[in-house]
Write a sequence for this structure.
């Protein structure tokens, strides 16, 4: 579905701006062409990597019954969707002289980026709780993390993301725009859009910090606290099982850092603009969704075995069909 047909139309009484100009990552045609092929390759890796994780977890009964891999498949699905919000538009803009996005398309990007981004933060927090129960209370792990609870936790993550994103969209849709319409980025996000409003945006930026920045920071602190408890537990009981648990936690902490650090950087300081903002945005919307599948598969023996099992199954099915 095109972002321009999201169905959110701007309030014409309060704004004279019908579209925004995206300045993108560079004005050099040669560099844009290089970036096009680079990000196209990255986008293909994102799609294939995350789709592979979702398919493997769904196909392997053992992994699907494991809460950790169940949550991981949802994380990969979110990364898959998140990359589709900004990257296709960016790739198209690399090949166009005029890089514009309609007001409704901008609102759609804001909605989906924050819906998926916040859902991912909540899901990572849930995954930290899952690891805490598995390591600190292993005898009751399957009783606590039963199918009913994990369904409710995932549903809660999606609901939390939806509420957060609606709040962000309402912030933008109420703002009057009457003059400048250039966004110094390759996609629409609240901090850049707010700066173009024809009004004093101090209170709006405070609201944005309290909504996005505090959300990112609180979830991040909860995650750090959970892993601090896990590390304390592992310190006193370090054998083969705990070594595997430590490796899993290390992968999760790496992903957490890749996601939360850019978000805290962007949304806790909307009053300031730094030259590295675009780099941070690229890292959050493009690089992180690409790295997540690599981190979780290259360091995970269970995922490797499940991928190999699926590959052999597909080869056997193909040979049987030909025979």
């Amino acid at each position: 579905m095109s972002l321009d047909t999201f169905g959110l139309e701007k309030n014409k009484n309060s704004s004279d701006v019908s579209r925004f100009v995206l300045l993108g990552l560079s004005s050099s045609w040669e560099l844009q062409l290089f970036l096009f092929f680079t990000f196209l390759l990255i986008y293909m890796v994102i799609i294939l990597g995350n789709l592979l994780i979702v398919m493997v977890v769904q196909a392997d009964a053992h992994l699907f019954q494991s809460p950790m891999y169940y949550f991981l498949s949802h994380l990969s699905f979110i990364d898959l969707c998140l990359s589709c919000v900004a990257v296709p538009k960016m790739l198209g803009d690399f090949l166009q002289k005029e890089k514009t996005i309609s007001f409704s398309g901008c609102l759609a990007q804001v909605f989906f980026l924050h819906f998926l981004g916040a859902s991912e933060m909540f899901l990572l927090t849930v995954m930290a709780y899952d690891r805490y129960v598995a390591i600190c209370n292993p005898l009751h792990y399957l009783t606590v993390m039963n199918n009913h609870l994990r369904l409710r936790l995932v549903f809660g993550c999606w609901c939390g993301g939806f509420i957060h994103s609606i709040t962000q969209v309402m912030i933008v849709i109420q703002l009057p725009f009457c003059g400048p319409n250039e966004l110094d980025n390759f996609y629409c996000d609240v901090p850049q859009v707010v700066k173009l409003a024809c009004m004093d945006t101090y209170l709006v930026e405070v609201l944005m910090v309290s909504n996005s920045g505090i959300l990112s920071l609180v979830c991040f602190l909860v995650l750090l606290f959970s892993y601090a408890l896990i590390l304390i537990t592992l310190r006193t009981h370090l054998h083969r099982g705990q070594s595997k648990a430590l490796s899993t936690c290390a992968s999760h902490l790496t992903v957490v850092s890749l996601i939360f650090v850019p978000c805290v950087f962007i949304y806790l300081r909307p009053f300031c603009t730094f030259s590295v903002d675009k780099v941070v945005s690229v890292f959050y919307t493009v690089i992180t969704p690409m790295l997540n599948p690599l981190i979780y598969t290259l360091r995970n023996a269970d995922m490797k075995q499940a991928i190999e099992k699926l590959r052999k199954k597909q080869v056997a099915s193909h040979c049987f069909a030909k025979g």
